């Protein structure tokens, strides 16, 4: 597993060396009937004791049963049963990490007040360089209380956790079909695309450890939170169950 991570990291480091081949170095089409744990981890529970509510006052408990592989799709389900909210969160931490490149995910969003699906990246030094020092790249965030709005954001130490580097893109009916959410990440800038249309580029005038913590490997996270500071606070219990469906994940070097 470590060897896979190192190989992918090494390939994607070429992005900073002038290579423009757009070589596919990782792809996941969710074949079979279970998650491939060579590449993926399940994050479980409610974040306690170290990060209760996953740091955002979220309501869900993450478990394996709410991440199902079926018919070529990963289905992350948000449910409520016996007063308990359940969902799933998967990562590639320690297994598939990369520095620079193109990350592309085709997915279909859920609907309803209180749900918060996301596709995002965290710096692999998070265990010793706590958030937001490790950096965060949000390839796609959506909250059901704002239908038709996609968020792309960066979190860096100079923002102290506030969302100051962010863009909202309005797409009527975005929840009704699959769309491709993409990030192109180089040593100079990070650009975001929806269905191959550029919607936001982050390129700070001054680059230092506080404004640009992005010159190191990151890992991928896909999850669906319920409630929380961003997704809530109100949750409409009539919407459940809701599915966040991922068709594929692809990673390229440049």
Rg over C-alpha atoms, rounded to the nearest angstrom:
17 Å
SS-based structural class? mainly beta
Low-confidence stretches: 10-19
Order of helices and strands: HEEEEEEEEEEEEEEEEEHE
Shape, per Cα inertia axes: globular
Arithmetic mean pLDDT: 92
What's the multimeric state? single chain
Task: Describe this protein's structure.
The chain is mainly beta. The protein has 2 helices and 18 strands. Helix content is 6%, strand content 43%. Strands 1, 3, 4, 5, 6, 9, 14, 15, 16 and 18 form a 10-stranded mixed sheet that branches. Strands 2, 7, 8, 10, 11, 12, 13 and 17 form an 8-stranded antiparallel sheet that branches. The chain is globular, with a radius of gyration of 17 Å. The relative contact order is 0.26.
Question: What's this entry about, in short?
Answer:
This protein is mainly β and 254 residues long. It contains 2 helices and 18 strands. Strands 1, 3, 4, 5, 6, 9, 14, 15, 16 and 18 form a 10-stranded mixed β-sheet that branches. Strands 2, 7, 8, 10, 11, 12, 13 and 17 form an 8-stranded antiparallel β-sheet that branches.
């Amino acid at each position: 597993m470590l060897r896979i991570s190192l190989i992918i990291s090494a390939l994607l480091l070429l992005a900073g060396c002038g290579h423009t081949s757009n070589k596919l170095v990782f792809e996941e089409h969710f074949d079979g009937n279970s998650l491939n744990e060579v590449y993926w981890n399940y994050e479980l529970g409610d974040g306690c004791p170290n990060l209760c509510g996953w740091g955002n006052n979220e309501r869900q408990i993450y478990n394996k049963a709410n991440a199902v592989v079926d018919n070529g799709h990963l289905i992350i389900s948000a449910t409520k049963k016996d007063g308990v909210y359940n969902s799933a969160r998967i990562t590639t931490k320690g297994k598939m990490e990369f520095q620079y490149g193109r990350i592309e995910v085709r997915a279909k969003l859920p609907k309803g007040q209180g749900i918060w699906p996301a596709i995002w990246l965290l710096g692999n030094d998070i265990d010793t360089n706590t958030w937001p020092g490790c950096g965060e790249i949000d390839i796609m965030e959506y909250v059901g209380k704002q239908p038709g709005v996609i968020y792309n954001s960066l979190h860096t130490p100079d923002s102290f956790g506030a969302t100051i580097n962010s863009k909202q893109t309005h797409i009527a009916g975005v929840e009704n079909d699959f769309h491709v959410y993409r990030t192109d990440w180089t040593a100079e800038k990070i650009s975001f695309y929806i269905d191959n249309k550029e919607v936001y580029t982050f390129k700070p005038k001054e680059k230092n450890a506080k404004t640009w913590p992005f010159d190191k490997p990151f890992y991928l996270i896909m999850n669906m939170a319920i409630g929380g500071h961003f997704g809530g606070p109100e949750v409409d219990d009539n919407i459940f169950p809701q599915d966040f469906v991922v068709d594929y994940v692809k990673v390229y070097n440049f």
